[in-house]
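During the no-cost extension, the postdoctoral fellow (Dr. R.K.) reprocessed legacy sequence entries with the updated structure-token encoder. One reprocessed record is reproduced below for audit purposes.
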Amino acid sequence: MGRVGSILVRSPRCSDVDALVGVYASSGFFDFLPSNPGEPIIRATIRAYLDELEAQPKLMVYLVAEQEEQLAGFCISRRSVPGRWQVQVGVRSDHRRRGVGRALLSHAFLEMCRHGPAEVEAVVHPSNRASIRMLAPFFLFQDESRSLPGFWRFWTDLGNHGAIRGG
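Re-encoded structure tokens follow.
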């Protein structure tokens, strides 16, 4: 994919599974979510995402970021229904506030744009200020999530991507 300063953004490999589990296991990752599924389910989910990426590459943008020779984060964008991408970003706690999430989102938005027009959304707990700071520059709108009551939905149209401060 490319480099943003000291951050290398690339496609994930099967050999990244352990490091990706480490991102999920890092401090604070599940603090604002309703549950923590545990390592076996996380590992199975990562492998399922990798299989899905291989089987249906037009329905998924899956990126990882390396910083200081360590896998520092990931961004998964899934086209779950026609015309809508759902984005999830995770950054290891020891790499937060160092541009990793922003680099991942910048590359993910460029890749999603290549797949044509669509709405992009991300869901975040209103107390998760770090995620809100990371997401806000990329999304023009926010409202209450209908699928997760008590959470906020950030969303934008890929046609507006050029006007977004972060993109």
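The first helix runs from residue 17 to 25. The first strand starts at residue 2 and ends at 4. The remaining legacy entries will be reprocessed before the final report is submitted.
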